[in-house]
Specification:
This protein is mostly helical and 567 residues long. The protein is globular, with a radius of gyration of 28 Å. The longest helix is centred in the first third of the chain and has 26 residues. A two-stranded antiparallel sheet has the order 1-4. 56% of the residues lie in helices and 4% in strands. The chain is built from 24 helices and eight strands.
Length: 567
């Protein structure tokens, strides 16, 4: 039999079987479907996943199913996710957020004639913002996205009858796979994306499903945030563990092993001392992990496996669903407290930083989402204190004076030289591009205090001491690192903050910030043991004074914008 005939016969067999199973399920219930899934599912098997595709199609071929379902795609947002080195577009005329980006298809289909745009090669990946009014103006939307999109009918229930049952089952199987792939002998945050290599076929199937449009994305996102299904899964796993613990001859099943692995890593969690930097503050960072939905736990494993690219893509592909976006963004922030620890443990900092920012930029570029996370989930407190934790752990005594007690970032530290701080400072600058978030930081006494502590850590770092007796063949390698750190962690946030201060409220905030600055500047000079009138050692030089520079920038901005009358 020729290959084409064999393939046709193979498809007819699968189609006939699924149609028969579907008829049986309609007549007596869906227990047979679940039993069949339990028998054939193997996330590493091409044949097994091919059966899953046919079951989801519910009597159609997988290709016919995609073509049929795509006709009922009612999503107003593109949400197409890409990885590094993808060529995308950014239109500054249409953009509300500086991180706005468009895929080529949406950009070319939209009207951007005469606009200020550029084509760029993405460094850390991204997602298309076409149709999202919080990131770009409606005038830049393509005809397929936005409120002006032509309405479509609802997808017939019969077409999705199997998909709506198989997909939630596969989501739970993904959870079990993530649990059972983790090496219990390793500590938290020490695994790598390669540990999930056997699941590539499963992740590819999820990505295919996301391309079917809103009918399938809705089923996927609903499965990801189903609290009841997650509670039932946890109960089932715990019941199996209890039974097996009472039966010495019992085989350790997928369920029991997965639950033991999950609980062991939860119990091993150690939280960074973020609240120690906010003593007496009414706002304390929540140092507790509580998983209520599948996506909560999937985010946990995303952090554990150092942000595997295909898992990140799956989580981002569902963002067009607003209900999912809310739960996912909160889960991401709840685990964000571990970012600095993950970065410092990583053996592939460059790859990890790109994958982290790929995910975070999609959440923090949306002003409504960002403001909600700041107000309800203490995101700013988590971010500022996490950054302070990382930098403070690398600190050393300032070399400006022999008797100095002032602590500064040690730019020779491997975590600083490897730029492990970049995701945190990038996210921080992204957040401060939103006025509401910037005003929140400036109006909060404890956040201002943390901000000035950060500036203090970088004031007086990387001191240059003139060498008079020994030939120096090569300049020290920390020059670039120190300037990059100050630019990313100080200058960019400072410019972002001042951009929002031009009204009456901004005038009072500027005065309050300048008053605070003077106190920290006085403390700096005291800690480096310098008093007015002391002789300056001309053989010692430091280029980094962000505390003083911030005060000068605030003063200059105040004079330029508010034009105070001369005394």
């Amino acid at each position: 039999m020729a290959y084409g005939h064999r393939l046709k016969h193979f498809r007819q067999q699968k189609k006939a079987f699924v149609l028969g199973l579907k008829a049986e399920c309609v007549a007596v219930g869906y227990e047979q479907l679940t039993k069949f899934l339990d028998e054939i599912f193997d996330p590493t098997s091409t044949e097994s996943l091919e059966w899953i595709r046919w079951l989801i199609a519910g009597g159609l071929t997988p290709q016919e199913f995609q073509e049929t379902v795509s006709k009922y795609d009612e999503s107003q947002k593109c949400g197409f996710v890409w990885h590094s080195n993808f060529v995308a577009y950014r239109c500054r005329t249409c953009g509300v957020s500086p991180c706005m980006s468009l895929c080529a298809e949406c950009f070319l289909a939209g009207n951007h004639e005469g606009h200020d745009f550029n084509m760029f090669r993405s460094q850390s990946g991204g997602a298309c913002d076409c149709g999202d009014g919080m990131v770009m103006q409606e005038k830049g939307f393509c005809p397929k996205h936005g409120p002006g999109k032509a309405p479509v009918d609802n997808c017939p229930k019969d077409v999705l009858s199997f998909a709506s049952r198989v997909i939630p089952w596969v989501v739970q199987s993904l959870l079990l796979f993530l649990r059972n792939s983790r090496d219990q002998s390793r500590d938290n945050w020490t695994s790598s994306p390669s540990a999930l290599a056997e699941g590539d076929l499963l992740m590819d199937m999820f990505q295919e499903l996301c391309q079917h449009g809103s009918p399938i994305i809705n089923i996927l996102s609903k499965s990801m945030r189903d609290e009841t299904a997650y509670e039932n899964l946890i109960s089932k796993c715990r019941d199996v563990v209890e039974v097996e613990n009472n039966d010495e001859n019992s085989r350790i099943t997928t369920f029991s092993r997965s639950q033991m692995i999950y609980e062991s890593f939860i119990n091993k969690l150690t939280f960074p001392p973020l609240n120690s930097f906010l003593p007496g503050s009414p706002t304390q960072v929540r140092l507790q992990i509580e998983h209520k939905t599948p996506v909560d736990e999937i985010v946990f494993w995303t952090f554990q496996y150092a942000f595997p690219e295909k898992l990140v893509t799956l989580l981002l592909s569902l963002l067009p669903d607003e209900g999912y976006k809310d739960i996912f963004s909160r889960a991401f922030v709840h685990h964000y407290i571990f970012i600095s620890d993950i970065l410092q443990r990583s053996e592939d900092v460059d790859g990890l930083t790109s994958r982290i920012v790929h995910m975070s930029v999609q959440l923090f570029s949306n002003e409504i989402v960002a403001a909600n996370l700041v107000n309800n989930e203490s995101l700013l407190h988590i971010m500022v204190t996490s950054l302070y934790c990382m930098l403070e752990a690398t600190s050393a005594v300032c070399q400006l004076n022999r008797d100095a007690t002032h602590l500064v970032v040690d730019c020779r530290n491997p975590h600083i030289k490897n730029h492990s701080f970049w995701p945190l400072v990038s996210d921080f600058a992204n957040l401060l591009s939103h006025r509401e978030v910037a005003i929140t930081l400036l109006t909060s006494a404890e956040l201002r205090r943390c901000w000035f502590h950060l500036l203090s850590l970088m004031t007086g770092m990387n001191v240059n001491i003139r060498e008079l007796h020994t030939h120096i063949e090569y300049e020290i390698s920390t020059y670039f690192t120190s300037f990059l750190l100050e630019f990313e962690a100080c200058s960019l946030p400072q410019w972002a903050l001042l951009d929002h201060l031009s009204d009456v409220e901004g005038k009072h905030l500027l005065l309050a910030v300048m008053k605070d600055s003077i106190g920290y500047i006085d403390k700096f000079f005291c800690d480096v043991n310098y008093r007015c009138g002391d002789l300056i050692n001309k053989d010692i030089l430091c280029f980094h004074s962000p505390l003083l520079r911030f005060w000068a920038m605030c003063l200059g901005h105040y004079v330029k914008v508010y034009r105070p009358k001369p005394l």
